[in-house]
């Protein structure tokens, strides 16, 4: 007899199990913009209302820009509290990207209208924040609060980079948001770094020294 096709299992997405296991109120925390060559790093903190969780919350990287924009509105309307914080390019240079990320997270938590007693933080680094912390590797795919924070952080930073595109024309910040895209590489080599480039970062340093970064990036992509 022919075998029956295996039943398809529904994809598992984030839920509130981690939140329910923590002291309340608990916020989810995530960042955006650790990897780009230009622009600030952002972070968001969200305390969800368990009775009013927007449908479709997930890791921001798994959502389209349109879906993120729509969910940003829903999160801000339904959450018990939300906050967004940034750390500037100058602060990244002074503190390094890891500690600047922690600073942005602190600012996001401090911006909450409700003071949390616990934070679920995406990743494995135990940042020193204004409340107790539990790190969650892959948290934006496990915790609805972290997923909501990932969306707010991403949308806030993307919006800021669109504004930076108007202030620093020619680099294409509205499109690549400061990441090492081919259009960014070409503009960086043609125009040189601007004020919001992270001048201590290796690709930017090479451009400042008059070296090409095209071959390096192409090799990295091929690897």
Our Rg estimate from Cα atoms comes to 19 Å
Number of strands: 5
State the distance separating the first and last CA atoms: 46 Å
Helix content: 40-55%
Q: Which structural class should the secondary elements be placed in?
A: alpha/beta
**pLDDT < 50 stretches:** 215-223
Largest sheet: 5 strands, mixed
* Topology order in helix (H) and strand (E) letters: HEEHEHHEEHHHHH
User: Strand fraction band?
Assistant: 5-15%
- Order of strands in the sheet with the most strands? 3-2-1-4-5
Query: What is the global morphology?
Result: elongated
List the main descriptive attributes of the protein structure presented here:
single chain; 223 residues; elongated; 9 helices; five-stranded mixed beta sheet; disordered C terminus; alpha/beta
Per-chain topology:
Layout: H1 17-20, E1 26-32, E2 41-47, H2 65-78, E3 81-87, H3 89-95, H4 97-110, E4 118-122, E5 132-136, H5 144-167, H6 173-176, H7 182-191, H8 202-208, H9 214-222
Parallel strand pairs: 1-4, 4-5
Antiparallel strand pairs: 1-2, 2-3
Helix pairs in contact: 2-5, 3-4
